[in-house]
C-alpha cells in the first residue's frame, strides 16, 4: 500500500542520513522552495536543511520558466548547503544532484538515464528539473540552494510538453510513495556530495555518471551561435564538461549551450 500522506513527519521518517535532509520543513504552499531556503539561510538554517512543498505559487525552472504541478503529483523541494569550497566549483553541484536523482529513480526499478548536464530522463523524456542558485558574501559562498522538481505520480502532461516530459507513473503505471523518493535522493546525494568535496570535481563520480549518460556514444549537435558543430558524445570529464569527438578525431569540451541529442530531443 502506497503511503499517500505527505508531511514533515512522513518525509522525515524516510530520511536515513547524517545531514542531508535531517532537518525537514514542509508547507502545503510556498512561493518557491528555493526562495524559502534563501529566507531560512538568512535566519541561520544549517547545512543540509530541506524545504518541501506540495504547491508552489512561484516555482522556478530553467530560464525563469514557472514550475507548477497538481497536488499529490510531484516532489518539489530544495536543499540548503553551506560549502566551504571556492565559488567556481559550485555549478558542478547541479550534476551531482542530477546523478543522485537518477540513482534514486534506478533504485525504484525504473530504467533511467541522464541527458547532459542534468536532465533525468525515462523513456527518452524528462522527469526532473534542477535549479541551483548561489549566494555570496565577501567573495565566499554564503549558501548554495539546489531546487528539484520531479514528476512522480503526474497523470497527465500538458500538450506542448508531451514529446519532452513524462512522469514515473505515466511510464510504469505505478504510483510511488513520494516520501520514499525524497529519502532515496537524500541518501544518494549525501554520498555523492561527500565524494565531491574531497576533490572539488566529479572525478570520484565519473564512472557512475558516464554509465547513466543518455548521450554517451550518441551523435550530438552543439548549438553554438557562432560555430555550431556535430560529433559523438563520449562522456564527461572531471569538471563536468561534455567531451565530444568531432569528425577529424579531435576531442572538444562543451561547458555551456544547449546540446541536441538525436533520437532523444529535437531542438530546431
How would you describe what is shown here?
- This protein is an alpha+beta fold and 268 residues long.
- The protein folds into two domains: 8-211, BirA Bifunctional Protein, domain 2, CATH 3.30.930; 219-261, SH3 type barrels (Roll), CATH 2.30.30.
- The protein contains six helices and twelve strands.
- The strands form two sheets. It has a seven-stranded mixed β-sheet, sandwiched between helices. A five-stranded antiparallel β-sheet has the order 11-10-9-8-12.
- Strand 5 and strand 6 (125-137) form a beta hairpin.
- The mean pLDDT is 90.
- InterPro entries: aa-tRNA-synth_II/BPL/LPL, Biotin_CoA_COase_ligase, BPL_C, BPL_LPL_catalytic, Transcriptional_repressor_C.
- It holds the Pfam family BPL_LplA_LipB.
- This is biotin--[biotin carboxyl-carrier protein] ligase.
- Its EC number is 6.3.4.15.
Topology (SSEs and partners):
Elements: H1 8-13, E1 24-30, H2 33-42, E2 50-56, E3 74-81, H3 93-107, E4 113-115, E5 119-122, E6 125-137, E7 140-151, H4 168-172, H5 178-199, H6 206-211, E8 219-222, E9 229-236, E10 242-245, E11 251-254, E12 259-261
Parallel strand pairs: 1-2
Antiparallel strand pairs: 2-3, 3-7, 4-5, 5-6, 6-7, 8-9, 8-12, 9-10, 10-11
Helix pairs in contact: 3-5
Organism: Blautia intestinihominis
Pfam families: BPL_C, BPL_LplA_LipB
EC number: 6.3.4.15
Amino acid at each position: 500500500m502506497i503511503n499517500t500522506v505527505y508531511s514533515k513527519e512522513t518525509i522525515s521518517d524516510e530520511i536515513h542520513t547524517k545531514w542531508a535532509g535531517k532537518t525537514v520543513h514542509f508547507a502545503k504552499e510556498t512561493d518557491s522552495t528555493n526562495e524559502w531556503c534563501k529566507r531560512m539561510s538568512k535566519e541561520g538554517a544549517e547545512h543540509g536543511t530541506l524545504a518541501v512543498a506540495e504547491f508552489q505559487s512561484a516555482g522556478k525552472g530553467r530560464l525563469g520558466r514557472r514550475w507548477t504541478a497538481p497536488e499529490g503529483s510531484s516532489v518539489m523541494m530544495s536543499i540548503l548547503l553551506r560549502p566551504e569550497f571556492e565559488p567556481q566549483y559550485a555549478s558542478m553541484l547541479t550534476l551531482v544532484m542530477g546523478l543522485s536523482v537518477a540513482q534514486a529513480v534506478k533504485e525504484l526499478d525504473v530504467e533511467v538515464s541522464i541527458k547532459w548536464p542534468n536532465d533525468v530522463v525515462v523513456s527518452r523524456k524528462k522527469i526532473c528539473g534542477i535549479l541551483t542558485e548561489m549566494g555570496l558574501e565577501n567573495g565566499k559562498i554564503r549558501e548554495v540552494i539546489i531546487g528539484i522538481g520531479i514528476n512522480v505520480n503526474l497523470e497527465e502532461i500538458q500538450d506542448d510538453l508531451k514529446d519532452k516530459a513524462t512522469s514515473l507513473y505515466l511510464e510504469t503505471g505505478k504510483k510511488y510513495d513520494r516520501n520514499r523518493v525524497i529519502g532515496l535522493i537524500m541518501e544518494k546525494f549525501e554520498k555523492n556530495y561527500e565524494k565531491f568535496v574531497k576533490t572539488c570535481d566529479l572525478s570520484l563520480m565519473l564512472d557512475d555518471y558516464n554509465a547513466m549518460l543518455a548521450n554517451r556514444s550518441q551523435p550530438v549537435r552543439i548549438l553554438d551561435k557562432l560555430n555550431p558543430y556535430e560529433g559523438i558524445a563520449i562522456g564527461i570529464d572531471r569538471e563536468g564538461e561534455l567531451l565530444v569527438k568531432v569528425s577529424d578525431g579531435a576531442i572538444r569540451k562543451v561547458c555551456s549551450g544547449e546540446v541536441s541529442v538525436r533520437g532523444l530531443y529535437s531542438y530546431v
